[in-house]
């Protein structure tokens, strides 16, 4: 059971004895235990095998005593059953990208119990093996739409922007379908044991504030309003100029990248959210004195905000020195317990 | 001679009859005239041959009657004589990246008259052939340092960030050398005929506001304060959370990407600068109705700012339809002359 409720307490606005800490992509390549498992199975196989997904989910908890677990999976897992051919090479590549109204038509919302049972089984397995809350997650509708339309990594996101501007009806229909899928997928994770869900809007930041408001925000709002029985954390990279809209979201937490000080973010957001972040993942490659200084700065910037969950400003990088991760987690715990 | 002084008048705070317009990368691959020349010479050869650099600089002026010319070159041209082996493959690759104090030691500031005479000759040639002001340009010190240290394209900029955090003395020495080179290079462009210079800080946006303030801003400030006899436009992508520092810069203009509305940018900057921007280059792939709507929005957002130079929010993309570029330029001129 959840003996450590720190992160839930923060999200519920309660006073806590210290700042909780977890890391985006905390299960991953920087850990030798993880690399050992990946020698035997592909990335997608790992996502689809509940016992292994559970095992890698637990690895960082054992190593660093983090305050939350996060389901090991990938944001693209639910787009496959929508009708998209997905491969990791190792970067994701989609053989049949969505480019026109006919492509959108052919997509169908997922049925998580039928089509993604391995994810829900992984959630139950992990839940049976941890004493901290379990975070579920999904890509935000726009970010998933970007992958589906671009079909691979993109520098300028011309395909999705052109669909959006030249064929808004098809774009909106795509967003409706992805939003419904994402809702079902996250609600199923919650129903199987996740008490927090994080919605990753990795690519929202490619847009102008006016396009974000018209084409993206309404779907995030709809998703957040439909989900029940969990705390929601929305994380959009490079999104501070969208805060006028984002501050209207009905969710408990907001992830913040390292591009803004937490107190400045809180000001723009009328201090409405618990903020999660925001150490630059590259700082973990520096010496421990620098890491400590940066953590001190972040803790001090978070002093007067509604609530703080310590995290990186983006996913941990594959070659991060493990000893620095341990140092960071211990230092955050020690430093915020003093206060 | 400069029969069309619109852009200079705006930068000098004078009232103008309409908004001036030019485009970042206005000479480039989207034009068939440019591609024809590139069939015969490599990119670096083109940069190093004054007659050809002049010819491609003039191409977009003839095609679209823009209000400024910008020297055809590349921000990496001046790093070669500093002691860096540069190739375009077509992306820039540096065979001997700067990684430690010894590498920094070996670099020397450029002597533009001796080492980059072809650039200054191109400036003089262009100047003799245009009736609009000529914009010179250079990479900002941090952006050039990023290329020199990373050695090639980078996703996470780990090398430069690690140098900065682990070896700040070497980092600062590198920045001093690059700042001095950039100063000499831009001042030589001015002395040979450029009446405006733009400083491109393409990579500043990878940093936290606190790192920008410590490691980047002081060098931009130094560069801007040293330059004489030209209007300076500073352009840093993804930099709105640095505006607290940037607004102290002693320059006339600031380039703005499409990630913030111009009126919101002006508010954060105490309306101190003429702003240049900020159409998303991807919008030029849409239909002309969408392009007109986006231009209308930008013109209306720019209504009360100190001064406006219409431009894209970043360089024009290689496959942009030429007819849409023509439509955009004509529409901006017509629309702002009405007002």
UniProtKB/TrEMBL annotation, chains A, B:
<feature type="domain" description="Uroporphyrinogen decarboxylase (URO-D)">
    <location>
        <begin position="135"/>
        <end position="151"/>
    </location>
</feature>
<dbReference type="GO" id="GO:0005829">
    <property type="term" value="C:cytosol"/>
</dbReference>
<dbReference type="InterPro" id="IPR038071">
    <property type="entry name" value="UROD/MetE-like_sf"/>
</dbReference>
<feature type="site" description="Transition state stabilizer">
    <location>
        <position position="74"/>
    </location>
</feature>
<feature type="binding site">
    <location>
        <position position="202"/>
    </location>
    <ligand>
        <name>substrate</name>
    </ligand>
</feature>
<feature type="binding site">
    <location>
        <position position="147"/>
    </location>
    <ligand>
        <name>substrate</name>
    </ligand>
</feature>
<feature type="domain" description="Uroporphyrinogen decarboxylase (URO-D)">
    <location>
        <begin position="20"/>
        <end position="29"/>
    </location>
</feature>
<keyword id="KW-0210">Decarboxylase</keyword>
<dbReference type="InterPro" id="IPR006361">
    <property type="entry name" value="Uroporphyrinogen_deCO2ase_HemE"/>
</dbReference>
<dbReference type="GO" id="GO:0006782">
    <property type="term" value="P:protoporphyrinogen IX biosynthetic process"/>
</dbReference>
<dbReference type="Pfam" id="PF01208">
    <property type="entry name" value="URO-D"/>
</dbReference>
<keyword id="KW-0456">Lyase</keyword>
<dbReference type="GO" id="GO:0004853">
    <property type="term" value="F:uroporphyrinogen decarboxylase activity"/>
</dbReference>
<feature type="binding site">
    <location>
        <position position="314"/>
    </location>
    <ligand>
        <name>substrate</name>
    </ligand>
</feature>
<protein>
    <recommendedName>
        <fullName>Uroporphyrinogen decarboxylase</fullName>
        <ecNumber>4.1.1.37</ecNumber>
    </recommendedName>
</protein>
<feature type="binding site">
    <location>
        <begin position="25"/>
        <end position="29"/>
    </location>
    <ligand>
        <name>substrate</name>
    </ligand>
</feature>
<comment type="pathway">
    <text>Porphyrin-containing compound metabolism; protoporphyrin-IX biosynthesis; coproporphyrinogen-III from 5-aminolevulinate: step 4/4.</text>
</comment>
<dbReference type="InterPro" id="IPR000257">
    <property type="entry name" value="Uroporphyrinogen_deCOase"/>
</dbReference>
<comment type="similarity">
    <text>Belongs to the uroporphyrinogen decarboxylase family.</text>
</comment>
<keyword id="KW-0627">Porphyrin biosynthesis</keyword>
<comment type="subunit">
    <text>Homodimer.</text>
</comment>
<comment type="function">
    <text>Catalyzes the decarboxylation of four acetate groups of uroporphyrinogen-III to yield coproporphyrinogen-III.</text>
</comment>
<feature type="binding site">
    <location>
        <position position="74"/>
    </location>
    <ligand>
        <name>substrate</name>
    </ligand>
</feature>
<keyword id="KW-0963">Cytoplasm</keyword>
